[in-house]
Amino acid sequence: PDAMGGVCARGVSRGGARAAAADEVGPLAGVFNDMLGEIETRDAGLAAHRDELGAKVEARTAELRRAKDAAEAASRAKSEFMATMSHEIRTPMNGVLGMTELLRGTSLDDRQRRFADAVYQSGEQLLGIINDILDFSKIESGRLDLEDIGFDLREVVEDVGSIFALSLIHI
After folding, report:
1. Confidence (pLDDT) at 71
2. At what angle do helices 153-169 and 110-141 cross, to 10 degrees?
3. What is the pLDDT of residues 52-80, one digit of tens each?
4. Exposed e or buried b for every residue in 154-165, given b needs 16+ CB within 10 A?
5. Do 12 and 39 touch, CB atoms closer than 8 A?
6. Cα 117 from Cα 78, distance rounded (Å)
7. What mean pLDDT comes out for the span 83-110?
8. pLDDT cut 90: percent of the chain above it
9. Is the per-residue pLDDT at 161 higher than 70?
């Protein structure tokens, strides 16, 4: 009875049941003790497996944390690169636009004026793409401020059409 109470209270009884007699209780106590030994062995195996799994989870968590940190650092580097490059490209593009604007202010024949206008419109569109790249890097870093700017849809469509028309002329 004391061994059974220990199993109920603690899960496994240390020492098992004592077989005092060679009657039917003796073999029963022996089987009971064997069963307790198997339970202890199983519990020890489960505890070792639990510890092993815990160590694997900790190692994998640390590995994932390092990968996450590396990915975040790469994303920051990419955003910084995009912002730097778009600024570096914007400066000469503004120079091209300025010089093209000066060219458009001179006396040009119709064909030269179309070419100068195409250069200027293409430059403005390229500058718009550069600004979009900058906006994308701002979106990634959470620093984008939206603007509400009106535009003339007809003018945009005509500008795009004229760029494609000039491309077709040169084919």
Report:
1. 93
2. 120
3. 999 999 999 999 999 999 999 998 888 78
4. eeeeebeeeeee
5. yes
6. 34
7. 89
8. 43
9. yes
DSSP for 80-149 reads HHHHHHHHHHHHHHHHHHHHHHHHHTS---HHHHHHHHHHHHHHHHHHHHHHHHHHHHHHHHT-------
Long-range residue pairs from 154-162, CB within 8 A, at least 24 positions apart, any chain: 159/121, 159/125, 162/117, 162/118, 162/121
Residue 55 has a CB neighbour count (10 Å cut-off) of 10
Most confident of 14-18, 26-30, 137-141: 26-30
Q: Which two tokens stand for residue 65?
A: 């944390």
pTM for the model = 0.47
Average pLDDT over residues 82-108: 89
Q: Give the tokens for residue 24.
A: 């039917």
How many CB atoms are closer than 10 A to CB 138? 15
Token pair 């995009």 is at which residue? 82
CA distances to 87, 94, 95, 145 from 80, in Å: 11, 21, 23, 18
Residue listed under structure tokens 């004391």: 2
Backbone φ and ψ for 169, nearest 5 degrees, come out as -65, -35
